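sanity check this record:
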Amino acid sequence: MNILMPTDFSENSWNAISYALSFFKNVYTNFYFLHVEPTEWEQNEEDLPTVQVKAKNSATAFQVLLERLGNQQLNHKHQFYTSLERGHFVDTVREHVQERDIDFIVMGTQGASGYKEATVGSHSTEVITRVKCPVLVIPENASYREPKNITFPTDFNISYKNKVIHTLKQVCHFNESALSVLYLSKKSEDLTERQEGNKAYLKEQLLEIDHSFHYTRNDTLEEAVQSFVTSHDTQMITMMAKNLNFFQHILFHPLAKKISYHKEIPFLVLHE
C-alpha cells in the first residue's frame, strides 16, 4: 500500500499523519510525506536567499517530523519517505501519485494558515476535485476511532464503477468495518428505473462485506447526514467525487452551527 501525505508541518497536518498511522496499522504501507514550496519564490532572483532559507527550514521540519514519528510505537509494517519539492501544489501532488503508484492521499482539512470559517482548506479542496486518487480528509478536531461504522451517502443517480466498488470494499476490510449506504432525498418519491438499477448493482457488489441500506428525507442534506451519523455512531463518511452537486453540499457547505460532522468525522472521497 502506498500512501501520499502532503504536509505543511502544522498540527492539523500531524493529526492527519497520526490518524493514518492508526488507520493503516494492519497494512504493509509505504508513507510518502510531501512538502511543496510555492513557485512564486522562483520568479525573482532577489528572492533566492528567501528560497534557500525556506528550503533549509523545511528540511529541518522534516527532521523534526521523523523524530516525532520515532517517538510513536513502532510498526514493522510501515516505511517512511520524505520529499521536498518546489512547484505548483496540485501538479506536484498529481505527479507523485503517478510516479509512486499511490493508493490513497491522506491530508488535513486546514493547514498552518487555514481559514477557520472554511469547511475544507483550499489545498484539500483542490486535491479532492482535481487529483484522480482516493483522498482521506482528516478534520482538525478528529481523533482516531476505529472505523467500525462507515456511512456512504448517495442518491443512486450515478453508476458505481469497479474502481469505486473496489476502494469501498478495501477500506471496509482494513478494519472489518460495516458500510451503511444512506440514500438521501429532498423529496418523497419513488426511485427512477436508473436509480433502482444502480442500487441493485451496488447491493450485489457489496455482498462480501457487512452492509446495510438506509433511507432518509430532509430538505437539508447536511442535516440529514448529521442526524444519521450521530444516531448510527459513524466514524467515517465516504462519498463519490463524481456526484459533484450532491458531494459539494455535504462536504463543502455545512457551516450551520448545528452541523458538526465536517469538524469531527474523516471523509473518504472516491474517484473513478
Remarks:
- The chain has a mean pLDDT of 82.
- The first helix runs from residue 11 to 23.
- The CA atoms of residues 5 and 33 lie 5 Å apart.
- Strands lie at 2-6, 29-37, 78-86, 104-108, 135-138, 149-154, 178-185, 211-217, 236-240, 267-270.
